Amino acid sequence: MGKLATTSSLSDYPKMTITSVKHRLGQHAKAIRLDYSFRGKSYGYDVGITTSSCHYGNYRYWFNCPNCNKRVSVLYCAGLYVCRHCIGANYATQLMQPIDKLFRKVAAIRQRLKWQHGIANGHGSRPKGMHQTTYARLVAEHDKLAQQIIGVMSK
Asked: What are phi and psi of 36, to 5 degrees?
């Protein structure tokens, strides 16, 4: 088995998305004011805002990271709100062990097939409206992943 992850995940940090503050922005906003407390310390500063044109008209808002000035849609709080690159943390899935990734894939297939959770519960029936070829492909992929899990667990 691989090494255990010791780095932190982005889910360990409070986050702020551009959509969560979009209602506070005017049409030509250049910055948004952030005033908050984090671990007993007060913060107050402006975060730059930019826009980009969408293909079908209108525009999309972006934050400019206060630390590196990258254009991002999510900022994470590590004292200051900064982008994921500045924090140096990984997505939770990047920290998963190989066996956990297998379990996650099997769970996704079982959910799509509307089967009970867990590889020990066997197969269910084909969901209404699903093509037979799609069903057969998903069952084959499920069984292959289940065999890999059993192989890893029996070591």
From this structure: -160, 170
Contact 139, 113 (CB under 8 A): yes
Question: For residue 103, is pLDDT > 60?
Answer: yes
3-state helix/strand/coil string of 44-107:
EEEEEEEEEECCCCCEEEEEECCCCCCEECEEEEECEEECHHHHCCECHHHHCCHHHHHHHHHH
3 state SS of 32: strand
Examine the pLDDT at 2 and tell me if it is beyond 50.
no
pLDDT, tens digit, for every residue of 83-101? 988 888 777 677 678 888 8
Whether the pTM exceeds 0.90: the reply is: no
